[in-house]
Backbone:
């Protein structure tokens, strides 16, 4: 090709790969820069490997990947075999745009934070109908049977051999997918394929799966979602029945140790070196509460769950759902029991850790209380799902009695412990009222 024609072709290719506003290109259209080899592997276990062992494994995977992936005319092409094309970079919350063109009878997918997967396959492949291929692509195929997101909401595929467009929005473990402009997954939790009792990692790479048939990819773009937008997305979902219980100005509708708290910039803040419980005056049975909270370093507070209106909610109420800096030990040079970690049913059941936003940022939390069960979802990750009626009281922290554990009703509020922890955007849905 003559130099001028080559220059024009390169310019045209670059324009074709230019990302939309706010996005960056995952694939540069010319080579495999930014990509390594990957496999179906728990990313947290990979990161936990000794550095030399991990580097050697990635080197082996990448060498294999490069035997089966190539770039032709601005397209990333796989021959249907080899390790997965995997981003060098790990991602948290994001919006992903991709186009793919799969061969007839093909089967592929996109791993999110190295967790399988947004499914891609030929819905006309009768051999895969036993696995649900006739329902189409765009579902979270590795979710449990019958779980939200397992099957796509609509059949939106174009015929194999044509280009399809995918849009994926992921906040926490919550995933929404659009295939060719149609919603196929609506804010469903991506289950952890490697251990369904544990939430997926907060960060991880994206993987383009190989599964026995050629597939082409192009126009791969990503936009990372910051905490403020992530909270707004989480708050905007399933809003029916929620009622705001804090006006952002004063403690109208609240009771308890109000003098130990202040309203600052639209948030309830515990005064330094003060504490006690403030609670919303509605006596609740089964409910869902949503709240944003912000912690100072080493910050400690709690959510009053079915609080009776007096005493210590951790023992006299159904429980205290702990609100605590995930780095509390380092910040205070002290140790805690796992059942004191953020989101735990204090002293009884430990929550998973590692899903808070950095100190100084607002976190979004949703707490569901139905009968003896409590579920805590932090920033889109389920960190606790416990039936307190099944707690062996002989094993609780400090062997402490919890006379309120089996309470069936009470108040929702905050349990201060001397630190200026803040709460805002507080809303409650009465589960009984929706029945």
Residues:
């Amino acid at each position: 090709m003559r130099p001028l024609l080559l220059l024009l072709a390169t310019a045209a290719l670059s324009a074709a790969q230019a990302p939309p506003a706010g996005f960056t290109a995952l694939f540069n259209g010319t080579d495999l820069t930014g990509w390594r080899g990957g496999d179906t592997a728990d990313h947290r276990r990979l990161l936990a490997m000794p550095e030399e062992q991990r580097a050697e494994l990635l080197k082996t995977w990448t060498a294999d990947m490069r035997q089966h992936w190539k770039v032709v005319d601005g397209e990333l092409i796989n021959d249907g075999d080899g390790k997965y094309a995997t981003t060098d970079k790990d991602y948290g919350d994001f919006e992903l745009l991709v186009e793919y063109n799969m061969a007839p009878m093909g089967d592929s997918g996109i791993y999110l934070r190295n967790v399988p997967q947004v499914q891609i396959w030929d819905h006309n492949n009768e051999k895969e109908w036993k696995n649900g291929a006739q329902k189409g692509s765009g579902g979270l195929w590795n979710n449990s049977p019958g779980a939200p997101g397992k099957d796509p909401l609509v059949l939106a595929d174009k015929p194999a051999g044509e280009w399809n467009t995918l849009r994926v929005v992921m906040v926490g473990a919550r995933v929404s997918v659009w295939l060719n402009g149609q919603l196929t997954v609506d804010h469903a939790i991506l289950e952890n394929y490697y251990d369904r009792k544990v939430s997926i990692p907060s960060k991880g790479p994206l993987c383009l799966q190989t599964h026995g048939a050629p597939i082409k990819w192009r126009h791969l773009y990503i936009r990372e979602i910051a905490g403020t937008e992530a909270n707004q997305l989480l708050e905007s979902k399933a809003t029916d029945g929620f009622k705001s219980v804090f006006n952002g100005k004063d403690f109208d509708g609240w009771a308890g140790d109000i003098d130990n708290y202040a309203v600052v910039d639209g948030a309830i803040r515990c005064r330094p070196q003060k504490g006690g419980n403030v609670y919303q005056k509605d006596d609740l049975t089964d409910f869902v509460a949503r709240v944003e909270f912000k912690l100072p370093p080493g910050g400690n507070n709690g959510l009053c769950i079915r609080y009776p209106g007096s005493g210590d909610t951790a023992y006299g109420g159904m429980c205290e759902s702990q609100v605590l800096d995930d780095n509390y030990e380092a910040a205070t040079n002290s140790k805690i029991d796992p059942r004191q970690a953020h989101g735990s049913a204090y002293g009884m059941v430990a929550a998973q850790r590692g899903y808070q936003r950095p100190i100084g940022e607002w976190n979004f939390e949703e707490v569901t209380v139905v009968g003896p069960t409590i579920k805590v979802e932090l920033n889109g990750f389920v960190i606790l799902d416990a039936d307190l009626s099944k707690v062996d009281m002989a094993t609780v922290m400090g062997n402490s009695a919890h006379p309120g554990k089996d309470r069936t009703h009470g108040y929702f509020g905050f349990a201060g412990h001397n630190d200026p922890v803040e709460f805002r955007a507080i809303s409650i849905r009465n589960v009984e009222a929706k029945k």
